[in-house]
Write a structure and sequence with these properties.
By secondary structure, the chain is α+β, with helices and mostly antiparallel strands. 48% of the residues lie in helices and 14% in strands. Strands 1-4-5-8 form a four-stranded mixed beta sheet. Strands 2-3-7-6 form a four-stranded antiparallel beta sheet, with no helix packed on it. The longest helix has 26 residues, at 275-300. It binds flavin-adenine dinucleotide (FAD).
Length: 402
Amino acid sequence: MQLAWSADDLAFRDEVRAFLAAELTPELKMAAAGMTSVYAPPDVALAWQKKLHARGWVAPSWPVEAGGCDWSVARRYIFARETTEAGAPPLSPMGLGMCGPVLLHYGTEEQKRRFLPPMLAGDEFWCQGYSEPNSGSDLASLQMKAERDGDHFICTGRKIWTTHAHYADWIFCLVRTTRMEKPQLGISFLLIDMKTPGVSVRPIVSLSGEHVQNEVIFDEVRVPVANVVGRIDDGWTVAKYLMEFERGGHAYAPSLVKRVDTLVVHLAETGQKMPGRIAALRTEIEALDALELQFNAGLSNGAAPGPMASALKILGTELSQRLTELEVEAALPWVEAYQPHLTLPGGPVPGFKAPADGLGVGPAWAAKAFPKYLNDRAGSIYAGTNEIQRGILWQYLARRNG
Ligand SMILES: Cc1cc2nc3c(=O)[nH]c(=O)nc-3n(C[C@H](O)[C@H](O)[C@H](O)COP(=O)(O)OP(=O)(O)OC[C@H]3O[C@@H](n4cnc5c(N)ncnc54)[C@H](O)[C@@H]3O)c2cc1C
C-alpha cells in the first residue's frame, strides 16, 4: 500500500495553496466560518464558485471537454483538503455533485449543452427532489405522479426537505410515470423549471431558526417529456447512480481536524479545559483521516467504493456530532442567550429584530455553537441515514463471512 504523495501531487498542492492565498478573501473565509448548517448560503457558495470557475477548477471530477478538471482521485483529495484547511466555503452539491454527473452519464447531447454550462458558471442553481412526506429511506415508494399528455408530463405531488428550493432555478425529481408491481419500476428522473406555473415552495424552519429546507408542491405542472434524463420508467437506475456520488468522494477528517483545533484555541482563550475528551476525539479523527487516505488510495488504484463509503459516512457524521457536544459545552456560559441575529448566515429568525449595534453576548464563536449542534443532528439522517448505512455494512459482512 502506498500512501505517500508523489512529487507531482506535492507540486499540485503548492499550486492550490497559491491560488487560495490569492483568491480566498477574508470575507469569504468569515462567511464560511460563520456557517452553522452543512450547506453554505447560496450567495456565499456562488461567490466562491465564480472564482473557481474563472480558474477552471469548479468540477474536479468532470471530463475536461465538459468544463471539468478530470483530476485523479489523489488530486481531488488534495484539493478538497487544502480548500477545507484554508477555510473556503463548500459549494452547493446539488448541481455540480449530483445532477451534473447524472447528465454527463445519462443526458442527451442537447441536455448537456443546455444545462451543464450554466451549472458550472453558477448561473443556474439546482435542488434535489427525491424525498416525499412518506418516502425517505424507502425511496422507491415515492408517489409524485407524472401523467403523459402529448409532449408533456403533468406532474402532481409533494417533495419534502428540499434543501435551498427557495433559491433554486431548477429541481431534479424522481416521479412516478407508470404504476407497476415492483415499486422500483415506473419511476423517471425529470428536470423541472422552478418557475413553471403550479410549483410552490413552503419553508421548513429548523430548530436552529434557519430556513434551509422546504416543502415543494407540484399542482398539475406541465413539464416537457424532453426533460426526462435516461429512459422513461427507468429512473431508479439513474437515481442509484446519483446516490453513489452522494455517498462517495467526500473527506470528513480535514474539517473535523480544523474544528477540533479551533475548539482548543477557544478553550484556552476562555480559561477552560477538557483535555481527556479532546484527546480521545482527536485520536478518533486522526484514525478517520488515515482511513480516508487509505480509501482514496484504494480508489486511485481502481478499487470500487464498496461498503467503506458507508463506514466513512457513519464515522464522519457521528464524530462531528460528538464534536458539537464539546463545542456547546465550551460555549455553555453564553448559549442560553437567544441571539439568532448572530447565527447568520441562515438567520435571522423571521420577526426577530436584531439589536442596532449587531453585537451579542459572549464571544462570536459561542453564538453559533448551539445552532450548529442542532443542525448537526441531521448529519446521521441525510444522504442515507446511518441506520441504513449500518444495514449495508451488515449485509456486506454477512455475505463476506458466509
Ligand atoms: C438537513 C436535511 C436536508 C435534506 N435535504 C434533502 C434534499 O435536498 N432533497 C431530498 O430529496 N431529501 C433531502 N433530505 C431528506 C433525507 O434524504 C431523508 O430525511 C432521509 O432519506 C430519511 O428519510 P425520512 O426522513 O423519511 O426518514 P425515514 O426513512 O422515515 O426513517 C425514520 C427512521 O427509521 C430508520 N429506518 C428507516 N428504514 C430503516 C431500515 N430499513 N433499517 C433500519 N432503520 C431504518 C431511519 O434510519 C430513521 O432513523 C434532507 C434531510 C435533512 C435532514
